[in-house]
Amino acid sequence: MQKLKSWRVWISYLGTRFSGSQHQQGLDTIESCFAEAFEQLLGKVPALVFAGRTDAGVHASGQVMSCTFESRFDERTLPLALSHCLGPDINVWRADEISSRFNAKRHSVGKRYVYRISSSTRALPFERLFTWHLRQALDLEAMQKAARYLIGEHDFESFRSSQCVAPHARRTIWKIDVKNKDEHIEIDIRGNAFCHNMVRIIVGTLVEVGQGKIPPKQMEAILKAKDRSKAGRTAPPHGLSLDEVYYPDNLTQAEIPENSRFPRFPVTKESWPC
Length: 274
What we know:
CATH superfamily of the largest domain: Pseudouridine synthase I, catalytic domain, C-terminal subdomain
Number of helices: 5
Radius of gyration: 19 Å
Structural class: alpha+beta
CATH class of the largest domain: Alpha Beta
Helix content: 10-25%
Order of helices and strands: EHEEHEEEHEEEHHE
CATH topology of the largest domain: Alpha-Beta Plaits
CATH architecture of the largest domain: 2-Layer Sandwich
Number of strands: 10
Number of domains: 2
Largest sheet: 10 strands, mixed
């Protein structure tokens, strides 16, 4: 028997061939692929809401989507059915039946993005889809010092695209970790929300710090300038992945400082009606 159910769907994808996550007329996007998959499974397409928008070429291991529809699927069979219809570049790895009030975007507490850089002189072909290869050693300590100026609630106008349509750039970043991992540099950025290209511009600016083009202390002046031209380049999309979306019921690994205050945190009945 079919039953009306609401879902929180957890998704991973290789973003290389897609024109981003959000539907764009005539272009191959993550949303258009899901629309085709639901058309096959249900004969119609439910309203699909993604936790966040990823640019063309950006990957995800922890994107989240919400939707409501009538079917016989359960938490085990829905991921299998969707993944079968989506092809090899997209995978649904979890589906939670959830309150009909849940909205993947509106109820997100924050997100974790990870950017991966290789400064090795040896370029490995199988890493080219996931790593920005620079062939230049970076000053990790200088990058770490510069990153500290961005922690907290700030106006990130200097770090968003001129095409960003958000009404303002005030955001909270609670963690930026720049570290070596397996001969790579990983930049782990966690915040409540991000403007268009914000993570990639932050990374591009940190790389210029690591190259000695920008002193670490200048990051404070760049932030206060609220001028995109003062920040560094926009890092290429293929090094970036949306790794986690945080909700009130999965905050264990988010590492949000207890004294933080930003929209939807601390969690209240109004911010989490589920």
